[in-house]
Amino acid sequence: MNVSPRMRRLAETDPAARDLIARLIGRAVRGLPRMRTETPGGFVFTMRAGAAPDGKVDLAVAPEGTSLRYAAIVALGARLLPPDEQRAALGGETVDELVGALVARLEDTGAEAVTSLGDVALICWAAAETGHGKLELALARLAAADPAGGGPVFTVDAAWVASALAAVRDAGGAPGVEEHLGRARDRLLDALRGRSLFSHEAGGSGLVPRYRAHVGCFADQVYPVQALARIGDDRAVAAADAVANGICAVQGDDGQWWWHYDARTGEVVEGYPVYSVHQHAMAPMALLDLADAGGTAHHLAIAKGVRWLAGTAETGASLLPGAEPGEPVMTWRKVARNDPRKAVRGVRAATTRLRPGWRLGSLDRRFPPVAIDRECRPYELGWLLHTWLGPTSRE
User: Environment class of residue 354 by beta-carbon count within 10 Å: exposed (0-12), middle (13-18) or buried (19+)?
Assistant: First the structure.
């Protein structure tokens, strides 16, 4: 496999972080075939470890569910592999065949019709990046799923729409794309009006309960940063830069990318769970796209986040299980609080709604972040490949 410019840059910043990412890329290529389903283009929702009779972790992970959007994200990453490695990673298929199966799902108008805006956007994005012959169909479905004046949408979906349309533009464009991209850009910029960071909604309100309408998760920050960077005009890049600077300013001392933020102030509402995919893929993906667009370079923050995976400060354990025969070739998903009812994030959303910064520190002592979620999802591996294997079509 050729060494990408991004991997060389990481090696210059932190050789140990670069070596860790190289190991994860190898694991992704080996792990993805285990995540396939029998349905054309199908991928599981997750691979989860169970409990052995002695109470220890059973490393024989088992598949659960299916996910169309995860398959599209895998396509976005696997397209950067050489053809022979594509087939190895995709269980014998090429990325073109995978994208073809995904686009075919958009033609279904029956009970299996794709109705999620995010799913449609991701499939359209993958079709644009691979130059698929049915891109026009995918683009038409995206236009229908995201009409002008359509009301509020989730911020992540809004960002994926913008990234998909930017990819179509960069691939040569199509009728109506510039107009739709302009609306998608403005929707993201308007969602930041009067705020430091993004909340969970764009283009309006009403999708989430009022008590947490001020909260934005980590995904609500990085996907718009990526989308605005890929759009690339001065105002979009400046907005992306401001958000990236905000999340980097509050990055954990040990490299953690925190989970929930107060969009009004930029303060951390609740730090946990900390997800492995945020550390090795999603934060680097957005920040590297921003640097490529002329924004601030955050290479030290990227490397620091990657290093957290090797031995988390919270547990002292690595989120990279061993690679001996029979063990998973993936990362464990997250470090979380011992809080199965997710009470901490609910309480902190409510208290910070009333008074910014009011966190009730006693919750940290009662619910320490010592739980490791032993599962892995296909999109984690797809974004890893997408982030580090570049160059992208824009470079």
Answer: exposed
| pTM attached to this predicted model | 0.92
Q: How many C-beta neighbours within 10 Å does residue 65 have?
A: 12
- Which tokens is 152 given? 């509020």
Tokens of 147: 């009409």
CA–CA separation, 227 and 124 (whole Å): 14
In this structure, how many other beta carbons lie within 10 angstroms of the beta carbon of residue 217? 20
Helices 378-388 & 68-78 angle (0-180, nearest 10): 30
Q: Which has the closest alpha carbon to 298: 338, 355, 248, 253?
A: 248
344 in Cβ contact with 359 (< 8 Å): no
Question: Which tens digit of pLDDT belongs to each residue from 17-68?
Answer: 999 999 999 999 989 999 999 888 899 999 988 765 555 555 568 899 999 9
C-alpha 60/C-alpha 51 separation (Å) is: 9
Distances (CA, A) of 174 to 4, 128, 152, 177, 187: 30, 11, 25, 6, 21
CA-CA distance, 237 to 243, in Å (whole number)? 10
HSE-CB of 26 using CA atoms within 13 angstroms: 8
Token pair for 268: 């951390």
281 contacts 387 by C-beta, under 8 angstroms: yes
Question: pLDDT for 293-343, tens place per residue?
Answer: 999 999 999 999 999 998 888 988 888 876 554 555 578 899 988 776 677
Residue 300 neighbours by CB under 8 Å, 6+ apart: 13, 14
For CA atoms 176, 144, 223, 48, give the dihedral sign.
negative
